[in-house]
Fold this protein.
Amino acid sequence: GQNIDQPTEMTATEGAIVQINCTYQTSGFNGLFWYQQHAGEAPTFLSYNVLDGLEEKGRFSSFLSRSKGYSYLLLKELQMKDSASYLCAVRGTGAGSYQLTFGKGTKLSVIP
Amino acid sequence: EAGVAQSPRYKIIEKRQSVAFWCNPISGHATLYWYQQILGQGPKLLIQFQNNGVVDDSQLPKDRFSAERLKGVDSTLKIQPAKLEDSAVYLCASSALAGGETQYFGPGTRLLVL
């Protein structure tokens, strides 16, 4: 099975940098995803890591360490519109190899 | 490119009633997923289809939930009879077959069972 942990809530200031951590214990690993979900809306894809290291995409970066079962999402130059929940999801292996198991999400509040 | 479509967007029913949700995935996407997202939680996979076949339905409460994707395109998820704890957002997602691991989500159906 999969167990995914991430902080429940975080608050950060507009223009600042915030790091959202995710740790996981899995019986099989085939990639880690980050999704953004605004209140009342569907999750939207942010990033995907399958190898160790940092993936950068504009203001957002995601890091993965498979040996430590650890990932983080880094948001730079925070904007008010970044206030949302950020979901960490691990893709497993096996017959349902594209299955994602989601964490409970981290609710980020960006304040002026 | 049109996204994943779902209907209805909202539904309110009384316990023990039946309800059905519809999903139309992104054109050409062979894999379709139904998730249940309870308030304050991450989405939980209910069932995964590959074309018109079920890949995994291990977390689907089969005594009351059913789903089908008869022609390998759109899909319906049904709850019969509904319980209070079924109140949640039901999300449909799709992904392409050939290396398209990213799942794209529809807007969801928000269900309230009274």
